[in-house]
Amino acid sequence: MTTIAVPAGPAAAITEIRALAGRRLRHLQRAPGRLIGITMNPLVMMLAMGYLFKQAFVIPGGGDYLEYLMAGVAMQVGLASIGPTAIGVSMDLRGGLIDRFRSLPIGRGGVLLGHSIADLAASVIGLVIVMGAGLALGWRPHTDALSVLAGFGILIAFIYAMLWVGILLGMVLKTPESIDAVGSLVLVGLSFLSTALISASAMPAWIRPVVEWNPVSSVTTALRELWGNPGGTTGATFATENSGVVIAVTLAALLLVTTALSFRRYRKAEN
């Protein structure tokens, strides 16, 4: 029986991940429609709520609604990335591409890691498009460059965690139709059950604890603070005053769970 040696060591693993991520990015160049899926909803929200109808929204404490909205719109890039990533993984599984990767002498973790890195690059491109549109409409950060960059760092970490949610969905769900339904539900549900679009004070009292502890609310709160945009918060709770702690704990837990389950599912499919 012939044994195929799997390259070992960090250098070999990095080379494999780069090659797999490059394949995914080349596919994006040939079919850039994924960027439409990532940017369409955030851009529509920005144009409709932040530009056309912004006079209809009042922020507690005052301030420009477009500047309040931009953190939520930026966060939606991460939520909108879940569906396209899940569909990409599902199509690779259904088309037999993952099976061909398994037959090659490459590390088992490289396939999913390469997928996540390539999709992160695509999501960052989508984020640049959305933020550029916001700048064109009049949004501006009002803090120093380090704080602005820190905000984008949190945002990229959030997007990467959402990509792993998409990878897990793609490994579990079988059809693009079911993935699209779940992805849309996550995008709409987590956006409206958070402070991404409106302040928690404008919502019924019984739902406010859910909104305040939603990690999406913590991300948008941190972004507004780091960018110097209106916060719209009216009450002091642990979640609103310690958004950094909530972000660190929830994103770390989410990444740990989704990556572990995704790799487990990948290994199980081999047997």
UniProtKB/TrEMBL annotation:
Subcellular location: Cell membrane; Membrane
Ranges where the ABC transmembrane type-2 domain occurs: 33-266
InterPro entries named in the record: ABC2_TM (IPR013525), ABC2_TM_bact-type (IPR047817), ABC_2_transport (IPR000412), Nod_factor_ABC_transporter (IPR051784)
Transmembrane segments: 33-53, 65-89, 110-139, 145-173, 185-207, 244-263
Domain of life: Bacteria
Alphabetically ordered keywords of this record: Antibiotic resistance, Cell membrane, Membrane, Transmembrane, Transmembrane helix, Transport
Main subcellular location: membrane
Protein family per UniProt: Belongs to the ABC-2 integral membrane protein family.
Name of the protein this chain belongs to: Transport permease protein
Phylogenetic lineage: Bacteria, Bacillati, Actinomycetota, Actinomycetes, Pseudonocardiales
